[in-house]
Structure formats: structure tokens, C-alpha cells
UniProtKB/TrEMBL annotation:
Cleavable signal peptide: none
Protein name, per record: P-type Ca(2+) transporter
Transmembrane segments: 68-86, 92-108, 256-274, 286-310, 706-728, 734-753, 773-795, 807-825, 846-865, 877-900
Natural source organism: Paenibacillus etheri
Domain Cation-transporting P-type ATPase N-terminal: 15-88
Membrane disposition: Multi-pass membrane protein
Lineage: Bacteria, Bacillati, Bacillota, Bacilli, Bacillales
EC assignment: 7.2.2.10
Keywords, in A-Z order: ATP-binding, Calcium, Calcium transport, Cell membrane, Ion transport, Magnesium, Membrane, Metal-binding, Nucleotide-binding, Phosphoprotein, Translocase, Transmembrane, Transmembrane helix, Transport
A single GO molecular function term of this UniProt record: ATP hydrolysis activity
Length: 910
């Protein structure tokens, strides 16, 4: 029987890192020899397979039906039915195709999101080496159970959550889980504090992390969904019901239109019946009004504008996985960014060196500096990393020479990040590790040990002498030194030397640099008794080296642009406080450390208090996945639209919790990319700013399309409503449907391709609560709709007094259609004149207006076709009046825009 939820909860709450080895084994009812086969079988039945459970997914039909739970889609279906009632089967088919296409696209996007959990599962190790009944054997990782004794070595993927019982120089790479840029050093022993974050639990190894160095023996404490990575998987599989601001606005818009349509239709029908008009006649009139009012092209237009935005973003390295994310980007107010690999290069780099009593920038080099050559020897020879010899493009995955663009030297260097940084720096200033190794071959070594914090190698040098090279923690190494290398001479190590070196070490550490010290000792012959006590003593101090994972050069400018655009960057990282603060200061995210909060400090703050204080902090250090989610949710409770960037498994819950998750395309795990709304193809923070700009442009263009469509529909409704109230039979349902078909779609799409204004990124982001009708859109819809109706009714009335009914209806039909085409040019800006933005600056609008005009005119001038539409040929004078009325709306709106500019009321519009 599989573990029930109460047992699962109890198991999760046991802080194994705080228990002694005996207590751990007792709690798990196991022993160092391992479980017997029978015990393991019973536990497997109890706890279940060591796998991540599949997310609960809807059936394909269920997903398809879900897409229709939308008011605007319902209105579209009503329009299709009404068109069918009127015998307009072509329009019915077109509308239904739009609805079905929209639903299919929605299902495709939803299916893509479900790939995240599969990616997470693929990170698990397929096999594990275990000790059962005193015998070591290899089993499938899925058959592991709590209490199993597991053996780990370099190259293994940790198959479950494990409490370490034995560890020899063990290091595990946990960047995807904790966000730390360096491998975590592990050791056995009890830790104090049940609230220690994952990155500080040095006696634990976690599922899906990689063993990079050493070996260990541990006992499995959690499997499957009870592991740390399993908890993340559980969060990913939770159903996400959030909708974007635009979706909310369109839903509201649909509801408003439903009530307005029903209200107007009922009024018209009632008035007509009271006036004694025929029931069928009034029913057809009411249907005409409903068709005129329904913006049937709106959902399709919005979807297409979003899709066009996606294409533009893809060209600029921002890959959109979910269409609504384009619009959400435009309203982003907070960008919560992971540090490692997102704001930084995820590549340790030598930044400063202290040699010959002086600290200098690494970029200055060491040539001519006393002790510089010795320091380079120690950096490269007391080092286990290796330089890639230069694989062929085929062998190196297509990268010529296996070059790494993130290293100073451009070479691919294999090994521990700290050691590769040292070799890379030496290479960048002309010292090649391979040449030194040939000149000074290694004869013996004392590997690095986390307890003594030192590493020593012994090399043969010229004239049959030997050189001992040692590196390690400054405080430890200084205690082993009896001399110091100064101005080319070896002099006794004095107290003032120690004080000066430690002061330099403190300054480097305060800059969040990881500091290593280096020393040497020459021997006349090869030491025979190699041990820390006999070898690592009476050393000559050479210098210090300070390293850091540096920020990306372009990110500081991107942060500045964010601030100018009213967007607040927030750093969330699993790294240490000092490192996070130093990087944040360099990037301009914070000015001082008052804006930094650690995960342990966050744990002591209640939800209510944090909701108030969240605005005080811009940097969060040493955090766990739960903290990231908490931070994102706190900002969202403030009503902010939050984007979260990340690349690791640990970022996945926060990516999903945010309004828009931004995954890293190069360094990002498949899990992070799978739950993201957008993926950065170049892992460049600057690309987020580009995407925000595109998002703002897309939203602006969607508002223009909405203003155009709704003002056109309002013009149609008012025209029909007023005409019906005064007894005119001005337009038939087929006329309205044709106008909507030929004048709505193409001009609205052309508006979706309008260029962004120069000041787009100088404005603050719009609030999620702001109305879609704000910024002049609502006012524009109303007065422009009234203008269209007034001009159409004026032309009809004039034609009715000078010509017959057929000519009057035709002129009203042509006027209303051409008015809408002309009006599309007005909507390109609510404040700027067409002469400012340029009549020909949007070539798509020119083509759209030309094609729409031809389609409208052809049904009037082609014999037979005009009979089908119930319209007549027009004379030159009649066409002149129609065109003059259509152009009049541009003139009138231009005067309104001039008034708005002069009054200063429209400075925040568009």
C-alpha cells in the first residue's frame, strides 16, 4: 500500500540534517549494511516508486471544450447562429472556423506546458549503486526506498534525497536546485537549526544534483514526490487558472456587449411592435442590430496581433511559448531575476590579485611584477583542471576549436569552476598550463580536502630541484607560512606582513570575491614522506587571488532602462548575502545593503508583515524555492504584474507563480523552460527589456484595433437604431455583415503592425487594474462612433430627398464602409496628427485600405453582384458626396487631436 498523505507529511517534516547518524538510521529503521531484499520490497509497496508523478491532465476533448468558456467566443457563436438564420451561410462558416481555430491554438499551447514535468523526470538518474544485506549491487533508481544505503562517486546523478554517512572530498553541483554558481562541498556531521536552507545543508545530497568530485556513502531519506525536486514537480503539476490582464478585459468587454446588445434589441423590437410594424420585420431589424453590435472579428484580430508580436520577438531572441504572455510583458512592473547565469555569466573569473604587497586589477596583468611568475605557476600547476586540446567542429558539437565565449581566453577548460578560472586567467595573459606542465611535471600531490582547506602539488623544476606549490583558504595557508616573497627575495614572514595580507583579504572578501592564497617551497630532492604535516609547512607566501562570477556587461544598461520605464528589477538568488549584494550594487539594482534580505530572515517575517515590507527589498539571498514563490506572490498581492526569470529547477515554482515566467534558452533546464511563458534564446537580460518594449507595442496596437472595431460597430448600431426609431429602412443585415467583413479585418490587422512611439519606454507601465478604455480609447470610441453614424445618416437623408430609396440605401452603405476605412488612419494615434506620424509610414495600412475599398466598391459596380446585395450603381456626383463624407471624419478628428495637444490632456495617451 502506497504511503498515505499524513505519513508523507510527517516524513517531509523530519529534519534529517539535524540528527546524528545513529538517529537517522533509527528513524529510517535501517543499518549501515543496508536493507534486506524483503524489507526493501515491503518499503517499495509502502512508499511507491522513486519517480515523479505525472501531472493530472485533462483529456484532449476536455481541453478543447475549455477553450469555449469565454464570453467573446459565446458572442461569436451567437453571431454564427444569427448569420445562419439570415441565410448568410458563408459568414456562419467563416465565424465558426475562427472559433475552432482559436480553440485548437489554445489546446496546442496547453499541451506544450505539460512537457515541463517530463523534462523534470528526465533529470533523474536511471540507476543507483546500493548496499543491501551487506552486498553492493546496482539497481534501477525507481526501486530505491527510504532506508537504502547508496554509494556515490564523481559523475553520478544523485538518485534520491540522501543523508551523508561518509564523505571523502565530496562536491555536488546543485545550481539547478539552489541557484549557487559553485559546487557545494559536502561533509558528514550534525547541523544545528531545522530552518537551514537547502544550500547550507552540507550533510545532505539531493535528487537530480550531480556529483562533481569525491565519493560518499549515504542513506536515502526521501524518494519520488517527497524529495525536494519532487516538491517542485508537485507545484508544477498544480492547475494554473490565472488569466492575463488582457483576457480579463476582453471577458469584461464581452459581458458589457452582451447586455448592451440584448438591451438595444429589446428596445427596438418593443418600439416597433408598439408602432404596429410587422413582427418578422422587427425581428430581422433586431437581428441586424445584433450583428452590427457584435465585434465578431475581435478575438481573431487580437490573436493575430499577438501572433505577429511573437514573430517579431523571435527575431530579437525572445521565444514566446504562450500567446497572452506578449500582452502581459507590456504591463510588467516587477522583474524578479535569478542571479546566476541570468544577471551574471555563470563563469568564475579572476578579478583582482594581491602580489608583492600590492592589490591590483587582474586585467593589468602580472608581467614585470615581482612574484608574478611564481603566482602564475601556483595558479596553473596546483590545479586539476585541463584545457581542451581543440576538438574538431564535429566533436565539439559544431563549435570550432571548442571555444567558450564566456572565458577570457576563448578556450574550453574542463574542471572545477574555481580552478578553471585560474587557468583561464593565466591563458588570457599568455601563460599556458600545458606548457608549464611540460616544463615542470607533477611528481606528487596532496588532493584538496574540505577539512584542511588546502591542496598541494610537487613539481620537478630545473637543476634537479623540486617545488612544492600550495593553495587554499588564506587564514589556513598563512598559518603554514614562515617566509614571504617580496621584491624578488624570500624574507622572513613578520606580523606586519600577516596584518597587511589579512587586510587585503578582507577588502577582497567585502567585494564578494572568493579569495585563494598561494605559497611555495623549493626542495633539493623529491620529498618521500608526503603528508599534510610534513609537506604543508614552512611555506613561502606568494599572493592572493580574488574571483567572482561577474555580471554581464550589458545588464547594467538594461537595469537602467527598466528603471526609466518604471520597472523594478529584483534579484532572487540562492547565493550568499555578500555576493548577491555586491553584484546588485554593480548592476544598479540597489545602492546599499539595506535592501537585502536573506531566506532565514524572511522565514521570521509573517505573511502579513512581509506583504507590507516587500517593497523595502530588491535583493533576496540564500533563498529556497518556497521563498521565491512567496516573494513573487507578495508582489502580486500588491497588484503588481510580475515577471520571473530563471534557469534552474529551483526556479520552476516561482516561474509558474508569476504573471510571466522567463526561462533561459542556453543554460536553462528543460524544466524551467517548460513552465515558462517566454524563453530567452541568448540568455541575455537585455532581451527581457526588448520583449517588454515589444509587449507594450503589442498592447498599444491591440487597443488601437479595439478602438477601431468598437467605434465602427457603435457607428453601425447608432445608425440602425436612429434610423429604425424614425422609420427609415437604411441598411439590411447583409450590408452590415459585408461592411464588417471587408472593413474590419484588414485595417485592424494593419493597426496591429503600427510602429512604436519613440517615448514608449519612457512611460510607466500601465496598472493591471487600468481600464482598456483608458488613455482616450473610450472617449474616442464614443465620439468617433457618433461621428460615423451622423455622417452616414446625413448622406442617407440628403440622398433620400434627391434620389430614390435604392440610391439612398446604396450611398449610406458606401458611406459607412468608406468612413470606417478612413477612420482606421485616425486611430493610429489619439494625439498625434497624421502629418506627424506620416500618411505612408505604415505601408500595411495603405494596402489594407486599398483592398478593403476595392471589395466594397466592387459589390456596387459589378452587375448581378449589386442585385444580390440590393444596391444600385452610383453616378460621379453621388460617389463624390460619399467620398467627401468619408474623408470628413479625418478632418474632424484632426481638429479634436489638435485641441487635445493644446490642452495638454493627452500627454499620457497612446
Amino acid at each position: 500500500m502506497v504511503l498515505n498523505s499524513n505519513e508523507q507529511k510527517l516524513q517531509e517534516q523530519i529534519p534529517f540534517h539535524t540528527l546524528s547518524e545513529e538517529e537517522v538510521l533509527k528513524r529510517l529503521e535501517t543499518r549501515k549494511d543496508g536493507l534486506s531484499s524483503g524489507e526493501a520490497a515491503k518499503l517499495l509497496e509502502k512508499y511507491g516508486k522513486n519517480v515523479l508523478q505525472e501531472a493530472k491532465t485533462k483529456s484532449l476533448l476536455g481541453k478543447f471544450i475549455e477553450q469555449f468558456k469565454n464570453v467573446m467566443i459565446f458572442i461569436l457563436l451567437v453571431a454564427a447562429v444569427l448569420s445562419g438564420v439570415l441565410g448568410e451561410w458563408t459568414d456562419t462558416i467563416i465565424i465558426l472556423l475562427v472559433v475552432v481555430l482559436n480553440a485548437v491554438l489554445g489546446v496546442i499551447q496547453e499541451n506544450k506546458a505539460e512537457q515541463a514535468l517530463d523534462a523534470l523526470k528526465s533529470m533523474s538518474s536511471p540507476h543507483a549503486k546500493v548496499r543491501r544485506g551487506g552486498q553492493v549491487s546496482e539497481i534501477k533508481s525507481e526501486d530505491l526506498v527510504p532506508g537504502d544505503i547508496v554509494l556515490l562517486e564523481a559523475g553520478n546523478v544523485v538518485p534520491a534525497d540522501i543523508r551523508l554517512l561518509e564523505a571523502a572530498s565530496l562536491k555536488t553541483e546543485e545550481a539547478a536546485l539552489t541557484g549557487e554558481s559553485l559546487p557545494s562541498e559536502k561533509k558528514v556531521g550534525v547541523l544545528e537549526g531545522s530552518d537551514i536552507v537547502i544550500g547550507d545543508r552540507t550533510n545532505m545530497a539531493y535528487m537530480s544534483s550531480n556529483v562533481t568530485y569525491g565519493r560518499a556513502v549515504g542513506v536515502v531519506t526521501a524518494t519520488g514526490m517527497q524529495t525536494e525536486v519532487g516538491r517542485i514537480a508537485g507545484f508544477i503539476s498544480e492547475e494554473d487558472t490565472d488569466v492575463t490582464p488582457l483576457q480579463k478585459k476582453l471577458d469584461e468587454l464581452g459581458k458589457y456587449f452582451t447586455f448592451i446588445i440584448l438591451g438595444v434589441c429589446v428596445v427596438i423590437f418593443a418600439v416597433g411592435i408598439m408602432e404596429g410594424r410587422e413582427l418578422l420585420d422587427m425581428l430581422l431589424t433586431s437581428i441586424s442590430l445584433a450583428v452590427a453590435a457584435i465585434p465578431e472579428g475581435l478575438p481573431a484580430i487580437v490573436t493575430i496581433i499577438l501572433a505577429l508580436g511573437v514573430q517579431r520577438m523571435a527575431k530579437r531572441k525572445a521565444i514566446i511559448r504562450k500567446l497572452p504572455a506578449v500582452e502581459t510583458l507590456g504591463s510588467t512592473e516587477i522583474i524578479c531575476s535569478d542571479k546566476t547565469g541570468t544577471l551574471t555569466l555563470n563563469k568564475m573569473t579572476v578579478e583582482k590579485v594581491h602580489v608583492n604587497g600590492t592589490t591590483k586589477e587582474a586585467a593589468e596583468g602580472l608581467e614585470g611584477t615581482p612574484g608574478g611568475e611564481l603566482l602564475l605557476q601556483a595558479m596553473t600547476l596546483c590545479n586539476d583542471s585541463s584545457i581542451d586540446e581543440g576538438k574538431s567542429p564535429k566533436e565539439s558539437g559544431g563549435n570550432e576549436g571548442a571555444k567558450d565565449p564566456h572565458t577570457k581566453s576563448g578556450k574550453a577548460i574542463i574542471g572545477d569552476p574555481t580552478e578553471t578560472a585560474l587557468v583561464d586567467y593565466a591563458l588570457s595573459i599568455g601563460t599556458d598550463k600545458r606548457d608549464l606542465e611540460k616544463k615542470f611535471p607533477r611528481k606528487n600531490e596532496l588532493p584538496f580536502d574540505s577539512d584542511r582547506k588546502l591542496m598541494t602539488t610537487i613539481h620537478e623544476v630545473e637543476n634537479g630541484r623540486y617545488r612544492v606549490l600550495t593553495k587554499g583558504a588564506p587564514d589556513v595557508l598563512l598559518s603554514k607560512c614562515s617566509h614571504i616573497y617580496v621584491d624578488g627575495e624570500i624574507v622572513p614572514f613578520k606580523e606586519e606582513h600577516s596584518r597587511q595580507i589579512m587586510e587585503s583579504n578582507t577588502k577582497l572578501a567585502n567585494d564578494a570575491l572568493r579569495v585563494l592564497a598561494f605559497a611555495f617551497r623549493d626542495e633539493p630532492q623529491l620529498p618521500t614522506n608526503i603528508s599534510p604535516d610534513t609537506t604543508e609547512k614552512e611555506l613561502v607566501f606568494i599572493g592572493l587571488v580574488g574571483m567572482i562570477d561577474p555580471p554581464r556587461e550589458e545588464v547594467r544598461d538594461a537595469v537602467a532602462i527598466c528603471r526609466k520605464a518604471g520597472i523594478r528589477p529584483v534579484m532572487i538568488t540562492g547565493d550568499h548575502r555578500d555576493t548577491a549584494a555586491a553584484i546588485a550594487k554593480r548592476l544598479g539594482i540597489i545602492e546599499d545593503e539595506t535592501g537585502v534580505l536573506t531566506g532565514s530572515e524572511l522565514d521570521k517575517i509573517s505573511e502579513e508583515e512581509f506583504a507590507e515590507k516587500v517593497t523595502d527589498y530588491s535583493v533576496y539571498a540564500r533563498v529556497s524555492p518556497e521563498h521565491k514563490v512567496r516573494i513573487v506572490k507578495a508582489w502580486r498581492k500588491k497588484g503588481k504584474i510580475v515577471a520571473m526569470t530563471g534557469d534552474g529547477v529551483n526556479d520552476a515554482p516561482a516561474l509558474k507563480s508569476s504573471d510571466i515566467g522567463v526561462g533561459m534558452g542556453i543554460t536553462g533546464t528543460d524544466v524551467a523552460k517548460g513552465v515558462s511563458d517566454m524563453v530567452l534564446a541568448d540568455d541575455n537580460f537585455t532581451t527581457i527589456v526588448v520583449a517588454v518594449e515589444e509587449g507594450r507595442k503589442v498592447y498599444s496596437n491591440i487597443r488601437k484595433a479595439i478602438q477601431f472595431l468598437l467605434s465602427a460597430n457603435l457607428g453601425e448600431v447608432l445608425t440602425l437604431f436612429i434610423a429604425t426609431m424614425i422609420g427609415w429602412r437604411i441598411l439590411e443585415p447583409i450590408h452590415i455583415l459585408w461592411i464588417n467583413l471587408v472593413t474590419d479585418t484588414l485595417p485592424a490587422l494593419a493597426l496591429g503592425l503600427e510602429k512604436a512611439g519613440d517615448d514608449l519606454m519612457s512611460k510607466k507601465p500601465r496598472k493591471a487594474s487600468s481600464s482598456i478604455f483608458a488613455g482616450g480609447v473610450g472617449i474616442g470610441i464614443i465620439y468617433q462612433g457618433i461621428l460615423e453614424a451622423a455622417l452616414t445618416l446625413f448622406v442617407y437623408q440628403w440622398a433620400h430627398t434627391h434620389y430614390n430609396e435604392g440610391i439612398a440605401v446604396t450611398m449610406a452603405f458606401a458611406t459607412l464602409g468608406l468612413l470606417q476605412i478612413s477612420h482606421a488612419f485616425n486611430v493610429r494615434s489619439n494625439t498625434k496628427s497624421l502629418f506627424q506620424i506620416g500618411w505612408f509610414s505604415n505601408r500595411y495600412m495603405l494596402w489594407a485600405s486599398l483592398i478593403s475599398t476595392l471589395m466594397l466598391v466592387l459589390v456596387i459596380i459589378i452587375p448581378g453582384l449589386n442585385d444580390w446585395f440590393g444596391v444600385s450603381h452610383l453616378s460621379g456626383l453621388q460617389w463624390g458626396i460619399v467620398v467627401a463624407a468619408a474623408l470628413a471624419i479625418i478632418v474632424i478628428v484632426e481638429f479634436v487631436k489638435l485641441f487635445v495637444r493644446l490642452s495638454g490632456k493627452g500627454k499620457n495617451w497612446d
